[in-house]
């Protein structure tokens, strides 16, 4: 984004937590007019505000009202940006995308879905709160190429670990690639490798990049580690 727009983050965040819908939508309209690629707005405005909300909410520095204002308004703003995203041709690749069952994780998953769809993938957004049995069944039903778990809260890490272990054990969609990112994976070094994910990403933009760049990478059992230092980004191969 142009340098004069860096102050927009603070202004936009204040609009979010105060529930000022008119000002928030107006600022995003201005930002859309000032960039060639709307992905810049996601990278430099939406995602930083979403991470700030995560931080303040974890530290109990937001009122419940401010949290509700911000999450509802962010959902609307993401919908405002989605039609502006440049689209490429379909890849004929199917992704089932799940996330943690909190509002901010759902928003992160929505961002990831919008960017992946714009990049040509067919995305089935399950969101949070879906049982592993149903996810496994659906992966087979749609013949998915990838499972993305983007935005996981600490309480649901064991469920994610069990899901990945089960998929490795029973061989549903044997060529399935498993990608994780966001949420607790951004705060716990080595967690993605430990639970056997094939790729990992810090944010929705990087998520698209690593899937595009490493479509064939799969984690073998010997590469699942506990305590190994996390690689700087998900795009690094083992």
TrEMBL record:
- From the UniProt record, which GO molecular function terms apply? cobalamin binding; metal ion binding
Enumerate the SUPFAM superfamilies for this protein. Cobalamin (vitamin B12)-binding domain
What sequence ranges are listed for the domain B12-binding? Answer: 92-221
Which intervals carry biased composition (Basic residues)? 226-238
Which is a Pfam family this sequence falls into? B12-binding
Q: Enumerate the residue ranges of region (Disordered).
A: 219-238
The protein's name: B12 binding domain protein
Tell me which species this is from.
Mucisphaera calidilacus
């Amino acid at each position: 984004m142009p340098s004069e727009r860096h102050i927009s983050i603070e202004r936009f965040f204040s609009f979010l937590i105060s529930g000022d819908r008119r000002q928030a939508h107006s600022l995003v309209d201005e930002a859309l007019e000032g960039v060639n690629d709307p992905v810049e707005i996601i990278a430099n405005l939406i995602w930083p505000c979403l991470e700030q909300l995560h931080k303040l909410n974890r530290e109990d520095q937001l009122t419940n009202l401010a949290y509700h204002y911000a999450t509802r308004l962010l959902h609307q703003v993401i919908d405002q940006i989605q039609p502006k995203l440049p689209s490429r041709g379909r890849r004929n690749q199917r992704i089932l995308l799940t996330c943690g069952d909190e509002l901010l994780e759902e928003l992160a998953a929505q961002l990831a879905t919008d960017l992946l769809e714009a990049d040509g993938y067919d995305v089935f957004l399950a969101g949070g709160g879906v049982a592993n049995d149903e996810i496994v069944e659906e992966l087979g039903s749609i013949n998915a190429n990838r499972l993305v778990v983007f935005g996981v809260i600490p309480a649901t890490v064991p469920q994610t670990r069990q899901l990945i272990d089960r998929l490795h054990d029973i061989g549903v969609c044997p060529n399935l690639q498993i990608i994780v990112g966001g949420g607790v994976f951004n705060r716990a070094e080595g967690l993605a490798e430990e639970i056997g994910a094939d790729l990992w990403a810090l944010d929705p933009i990087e998520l698209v990049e690593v899937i595009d760049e490493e479509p064939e990478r799969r984690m073998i059992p010997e590469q699942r580690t506990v305590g190994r230092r996390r690689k700087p980004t998900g795009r690094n191969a083992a």
